TrEMBL record:
This is Peptidyl-prolyl cis-trans isomerase. Also involved in hydrogenase metallocenter assembly, probably by participating in the nickel insertion step. This function in hydrogenase biosynthesis requires chaperone activity and the presence of the metal-binding domain, but not PPIase activity. It catalyses: [protein]-peptidylproline (omega=180) = [protein]-peptidylproline (omega=0). Coiled coil: none annotated. One of its GO terms (cellular component) is cytoplasm. The lineage of its organism: Bacteria, Fusobacteriati, Fusobacteriota, Fusobacteriia, Fusobacteriales. GO terms for biological process: protein refolding. The keyword Ion transport does not apply. It is an enzyme of class 5 (isomerase). Its EC number is 5.2.1.8.
Length: 161
């Protein structure tokens, strides 16, 4: 089955900092990645490279920050009051959380520092500002279910070649 719009794609990949060769992410550690082709759920350059391919296809792609996760933006570093976290059982450096922004959208943040009553958090993607190398292998391709299409993202159902 070929990858095209509306197909659920299962990927195995390694992501490296292309300048330092540091391994940043490996699906062997976190499990395969699933997305629906053409729904904007994954990096456009990767989706473009996979269009029309089938299970077993492998490629290596290099991405600039603009093609990947964007430039690092200092405006995404915020300071919050520790009291804003009363709903959390525990807060610590490295904690991921979702915050509601003033414009009504949500943004993922990671706590980078806690000092007295001030919590510093970073909303940049961990790969922002990096030249990346994706070593990608298509593990599977299947039709998306009506529910997945309606929700706009893939659900884990296993995969078919």
């Amino acid at each position: 089955m070929k990858i095209n719009e509306g197909k659920v794609v299962t990927l195995e990949f390694q992501v490296y900092d292309n300048n330092t060769n540091e391994l940043l992410e490996d699906t062997k550690e976190v499990g395969p990645f699933f997305y629906i082709q053409g729904f904007g759920n994954f990096i456009p350059k990767v989706e473009e490279a996979l269009e029309g391919q089938e299970a077993g296809f492998a490629t290596t792609l290099t991405l600039t920050p603009e093609e990947g996760y964007g430039e690092y933006d200092e405006d995404f570093i915020i300071e919050m009051n520790k009291g804003d976290f009363v709903e959390f059982d525990d807060i610590y450096e490295g904690l991921d959380f979702i915050a509601d922004l003033e414009d009504g959208t949500e943004q993922s943040f990671v706590i980078t520092n806690i000092e007295d009553e001030v919590v510093t958090a970073d909303g940049n993607h961990p790969f922002a500002g990096k030249d990346l190398r994706f070593e990608v292998k298509v593990a599977g391709v299947r039709e998306a279910s009506e529910e997945e299409i309606e929700h706009g993202h893939a659900h884990f159902h296993g995969f078919e070649d």
